[in-house]
Amino acid sequence: MYESGENYLETILMLKEKQGVVRSIDIARSLNFSKPSVSRAVGILREDGYITMAPGGELELTEKGMQKAGAIYERHKLLTAFLRQVSGVSAETAEEDACRMEHIISEETFQGIKRFMSRGQN
Fold first, then answer.
1. Is the pTM of this model over 0.85?
2. DSSP character string of 39-99
3. Which residue from 21, 32, 49, 102 has the least number of CB within 10 angstroms?
4. Mean pLDDT on 26-35
């Protein structure tokens, strides 16, 4: 899956947690994308089995979509915390950099950071 698809899934998950119901317009507003761009992406995510759309336009993550979105969101949160704590960068910089890093970091490196951060929690 491409970075853009991962961003859409993560956004759907975050919006769902925040407001309960997610529609394409919510994604467009959150990501500052045009409605046609979001509509196209939503169609691709539906075809690939990551989301479903109810008759009222409400978007739901499928089990496959929830797993992917959850994994990306976990990476985002952990990388943000890592950058804040270890690098001492601002919250805004940490968020922006984590958003880019979460899509390209290897699983091995992510697991290493996860172990490092969990040692600091104990």
1. no
2. HHHHHHHHHTTSEEE-TTS-EEE-HHHHHHHHHHHHHHHHHHHHIIIII---HHHHHHHHH
3. 32
4. 94
A 10 A CB-CB count for 68 gives 21
Q: How far apart are CA 67 and CA 32, in angstroms?
A: 25
Which residue has better confidence, 1 or 33?
33
Within a 10 A sphere around the Cβ of 118, how many other Cβ atoms?
Answer: 10
Domain boundaries of the chain, sorted by first residue: 3-62, 68-121
Helix axis angle, 24-31 to 3-19, nearest 10°: 110
- What value does the CA radius of gyration of the chain take, rounded to a whole number of Å? 15
- Quote the CA–CA distance of 73 and 1 in Å, as a whole number: 15
Q: Are 12 and 51 spatial neighbours (Cβ–Cβ below 8 Å)?
A: yes
CATH class of the domain whose range is 3-62? mainly alpha
CATH 2.60.40 is held by the domain 68-121 = no
Q: Which of 71, 33, 68 is nearest to 48 (CA)?
A: 68
